[in-house]
Amino acid sequence: MEIPRYTLADIQYLPALPGIYTFYNNKEEVIYVGKAKNIKKRVADYFATSKLYNFKTERMITHIATMVYTVVNSEYEALLLENNLIKSLQPRYNILLKDGKTYPYLCITKDRFPKLIITRKTVPSLGKYYGPFTSSSSIRQTLEVIKKLFTFRTCNYNLSDINIAKNKFKVCLDYHLGHCKGPCQAFQDVTSYQKEIAQIEELLKNNFASIKKVLKEKMQAAAQLLAYKEAQAFKEKLMILDQYQSKSLVINPLVGDLDIVAMISDESHAFVGYLHIKQGAISFTQHRVITKKLEEEDRDLIPLVVCSLRFCSNSTAPEVLVNIPIDLNIGPFSITMPKIGDKRKLVELALQNALLCKKDFLYKKSHFQGRPNIMLLQLQHDLKLKTSPDWIECFDNSNIQGHHPVAAMVCFKDGRPSKKDYRQYNIKTIVGPNDCASMYEVIKRRYSHLVKAQEVLPNLIVVDGGKGQLNAAVLALQEIGLYGKIAIIGMAKRLEELYFPNDTLPLYLNKSSLSLTLLQQLRNEAHRFAIAFHRNKRSKAILHSEWEDISGIGPKTLAKLLQQLGSPNTIQASSLEQLAQVTGPAKAKQLYDYFLHKKSMEATKASENI
């Protein structure tokens, strides 16, 4: 089905309704996505001779060949659609609005006896999600507080009534340390366990009053029974809770749920400070640097930034506070600019964060732009290189006794990882554990391709290994005709020896030198990348070889199980309900029956051996 396109002559036929419009160039590339209350009027404004635009906008207009529009019900829906299209298409003339990394969440699963899981992926069917948290360290600190206050299980057992009645499980170390009350052996019932989980949910919602009330009642009850040791334990929990609460309180705990967005900008960038307030406590913060493309004004950027940040923090706050006045009604929340009071103080706090973000950005830009990398200059001096090693590639092999051999290449540009240039290789011509031959194959494949494609060559090649791997790499470069054109060294792990071609004695760098630090970063990154690739390949091979006889379970289903449940052992230990959430009831039943049969066979074999 072909999407209708409109040209400049068709502007009169555009609808006078809210929606989004998309501009295409002659190469059928999307160059701009915009929203409008009135599509016809907004698009016509671009081509009105009376309008004065900046140079960038005028240049964009000259590249517009065709356009497409989409009508929506409201301006808020137009804003959401514009936000999603900018993120997915990244048009040339739209601002760079990226979410960055995925932030961690704390998930309370929907099991009969729920578990607490740290995850960066949200699967609504798995359980309730709380967050996001600003970093993995902050979420682990919260989890540590929860462990000190409440008890819950960390095992992956299927704690059904039948399994518990059959006494299938034994309590683990968490039970003996007091972190779990042993529901696996019926030492704790479902009702009592769910009460603990409900209290954890209240803490994650920042509802501290109800938790304090329960702890105080338990402390007083224990004191009346003269159980002073138990009463002291509850008192210590209250102190832990007070300490945790004091770290997150804002100016006035009665402000409720709010989003605060403060923005300052210059000609080329906008700097954003964001605070998400939940039940009077700061639960999420973020800074954003936005690159302008058409010298947009702040009042035009604020709605899009608000929409993106609310999505990132999973916010449902009814009010958004900003530092720039805008006249816009965009849906289920209001946007206001407070002038006095506690809300104004919160806006000033977000503005202070935006100013600090701008200061850091300008400092890094002025301090490092055009300044030679000291680490690279030191490495060039220590290795006696003719040019600065601005582009370094490092290779490493990985296998277990020759099985599933792979290799990986990582790339550092200007002393920093360039992950888009990383490469992974399946070893094709080598049988058995032969690191030297594997290195020869990978080096030859890599640089034969670069020569054939006439691409830019690196300044330095680092081989993870000693003289054997280095000689194999040198032989490959000689056959390609690149030996002598690219500097190459080998780096042995044991004593950090650096080997050079045609040099029998290794070079030892000072353990505290910047050169060795950079080379160690390269080697460790290559090792990590190769190991991760090898583990992934081995896990897939194990899955396919072990479960290829299960009817109806193909590679896509296995990949989906691995992605959502983590590992083969976790999949095998999952309950029928957990499997059904990923694969559907029919395939889940096949898998579950297969695992039961496998366990019974293993148990029979073990009894025969006894």
TrEMBL record:
Residues 264-473 form the UvrC family homology region profile domain. Keywords: Cytoplasm, DNA damage, DNA excision, DNA repair, Excision nuclease, SOS response. Residues 16-95 form the GIY-YIG domain. GO terms for cellular component: cytoplasm; excinuclease repair complex. It comes from the Bacteria. Signal peptide: none annotated. GO terms for molecular function: DNA binding; excinuclease ABC activity. One of its GO terms (biological process) is SOS response. The keyword Cytoplasm applies. It is found in: Cytoplasm. Its main location: cytoplasm. Belongs to the UvrC family. The UvrABC repair system catalyzes the recognition and processing of DNA lesions. UvrC both incises the 5' and 3' sides of the lesion. The N-terminal half is responsible for the 3' incision and the C-terminal half is responsible for the 5' incision. Interacts with UvrB in an incision complex. This is UvrABC system protein C. It comes from Candidatus Cardinium hertigii. The lineage of its organism: Bacteria, Pseudomonadati, Bacteroidota, Cytophagia, Cytophagales.
